[in-house]
Amino acid sequence: MTDSAPKSHGRLAVRPTLKPSELMTNTPDLAGVWKAKVITLFPEAFPGVLGESLTGKALQDGKWQLEKIRLREFGEGKHRNVDDTPAGGGAGMVIRPDVMGNAIDFAMNGAPQDRAQWPLVYLSPRGKRFDQATAKRWSKARGITMICGRFEGVDDRVLFHYGIEEVSLGDFVLTGGEIAAQAMIDATVRLLPGVLGNAESIEEESHANGLLEHPQFTRPAEWRGLPIPEVLMSGHHGKIAEWRQKMAEKITQERRPDMWDAYQAAQKTQKAKK
Ligand code: SAH
């Protein structure tokens, strides 16, 4: 890491509204630092993989924050029930709107009202598919609240009432929203300033510029009879950049005709503007 930002921000502000159990598991609030609030039935699943490597180090260094909101604590009765059978019958259980509503009210208390500043998202296979542009948009907000569903999902009135943005990790069905939340937080956090050591690597990688990335190689120079492409060993930066651009275009064209069409259209309008 080349970043030399001080570890302590010197602006810790412990909010007196936190319940004791939350004080034990969540770090105190760092004013102005991007924060993910995650509503989940499985708080032990967090930070999960986000606690490792670059995102984990950044979390420790206070470059982003995580607040787990335990849906179970908002449950009803002795057993803290959060779900009930689906209206109209059918298999499975549905998360109750009153329980989820109270958890959302708690999460959004004190967060900016403007959703551009603080998106409120439900992880859902019915949502708009998550992509790099969404990660970029979220990284520019002050934080985000994510709702992880379980069972058959949440009562639809909650989504309507709060005007919740539904976002999907892809066209498949997971058992719960937690893995999707971690994937999306990872993609967003690595775009925050100072999280990755090398800001250039963000600009060049897949999806950043509408192309998939060129192939990567490292030593040894020859492995099982396969050499590294000669141009990469030439030390000629101009030629290397040209080769990488060509490879990125070739791979995008072969693997993602949809991206290739969009890329070419964007190039055309750019040329027309000049
Ligand atoms: N009955 C629902 C699926 C429920 S899956 C349906 O058919 O649409 C249980 C939970 O897993 C969901 O509430 C959601 O939070 C999460 N989930 C499942 N697939 C997902 C995906 N592709 N992207 C994001 N979250 C997903």
From TrEMBL:
<dbReference type="InterPro" id="IPR016009">
    <property type="entry name" value="tRNA_MeTrfase_TRMD/TRM10"/>
</dbReference>
<keyword id="KW-0819">tRNA processing</keyword>
<comment type="similarity">
    <text>Belongs to the RNA methyltransferase TrmD family.</text>
</comment>
<protein>
    <recommendedName>
        <fullName>tRNA (guanine-N(1)-)-methyltransferase</fullName>
        <ecNumber>2.1.1.228</ecNumber>
    </recommendedName>
</protein>
<dbReference type="Pfam" id="PF01746">
    <property type="entry name" value="tRNA_m1G_MT"/>
</dbReference>
<dbReference type="InterPro" id="IPR002649">
    <property type="entry name" value="tRNA_m1G_MeTrfase_TrmD"/>
</dbReference>
<keyword id="KW-0963">Cytoplasm</keyword>
<comment type="subunit">
    <text>Homodimer.</text>
</comment>
<keyword id="KW-0808">Transferase</keyword>
<feature type="domain" description="tRNA methyltransferase TRMD/TRM10-type">
    <location>
        <begin position="35"/>
        <end position="261"/>
    </location>
</feature>
<comment type="function">
    <text>Specifically methylates guanosine-37 in various tRNAs.</text>
</comment>
<feature type="binding site">
    <location>
        <begin position="169"/>
        <end position="174"/>
    </location>
    <ligand>
        <name>S-adenosyl-L-methionine</name>
    </ligand>
</feature>
<keyword id="KW-0949">S-adenosyl-L-methionine</keyword>
<dbReference type="GO" id="GO:0002939">
    <property type="term" value="P:tRNA N1-guanine methylation"/>
</dbReference>
<keyword id="KW-0489">Methyltransferase</keyword>
<dbReference type="InterPro" id="IPR029026">
    <property type="entry name" value="tRNA_m1G_MTases_N"/>
</dbReference>
<feature type="binding site">
    <location>
        <position position="149"/>
    </location>
    <ligand>
        <name>S-adenosyl-L-methionine</name>
    </ligand>
</feature>
<dbReference type="InterPro" id="IPR023148">
    <property type="entry name" value="tRNA_m1G_MeTrfase_C_sf"/>
</dbReference>
<dbReference type="GO" id="GO:0005829">
    <property type="term" value="C:cytosol"/>
</dbReference>
<dbReference type="InterPro" id="IPR029028">
    <property type="entry name" value="Alpha/beta_knot_MTases"/>
</dbReference>
<dbReference type="GO" id="GO:0052906">
    <property type="term" value="F:tRNA (guanine(37)-N1)-methyltransferase activity"/>
</dbReference>
